[in-house]
Amino acid sequence: MSLDAYNRALFILNRSATTADSSNVTTSPVHPVDLELDSQLQTAAALGTLDSEMPENTMKAMVPKMVEFFDYCNKVYPLETHKYHLTSTKVYRFMWYVAFREKKPTGGRKRGTESNQQNRYFDLAAYNAIICDFRQPGSGESQLIWPRPRNPVSSSVFALYKAVFRNIHKVHVAQKLTSNTWEQIWTIHLDELHKIVKERQPEIRKESYQEKATEEFAPYTIVENYGNIEEELWQSSTIRNGHRTHVSGLRHRYLFLHLTSGILRAESLYKAELSDIIGIVPPCSHEDVHRMFIMVNQLPMGKTSQGRILYGRATRHRDVRLCCIGALAFYLQYRFYVTCEFRDFTVDDWLDNTKWFDIKLLTNVESCDHTSVMCNDSYKDKMKAVMSKLKLPMGKLLHLDRNVGPEILKFLQAESEDIQKMGNWNPSIHDSSYSTKLPMKAIRQLAGYPDGQSLYFNTRTALDPPEALLRATPMGQWVYEAHENVGRRCSESGSSKHQTAYQVLCFFVDLNRFFLQDAAAMICLYPERGRHKMYDEIPVFNHELWQPFVGEMKLKLETEECPFDAKLEAVLPSVHQWHQANQQAVAELVRETKLLREETKLFREETKKAIEAIQNDLRQSNMDFRRSIAMSSAALAKTLRAHAGSVVPEVAGLEELSTLMAASSPGTSPRFREDQQNNEHPPVDSRPFIMHPKHASIHNMYCEWHGISPFADPQGGVVGRNKAHGKKWRKEFNPNHYSRTSRIMKAVDRIISSDNLTWQNAVARLEPLYDRSGKSLSKMVDLLVDEGLLAKGKARGAKRKAKEAGIGVEKI
Question: How far is the C-alpha of 277 from the C-alpha of 324, rounded, in Å?
Answer without folding.
Answer: 13
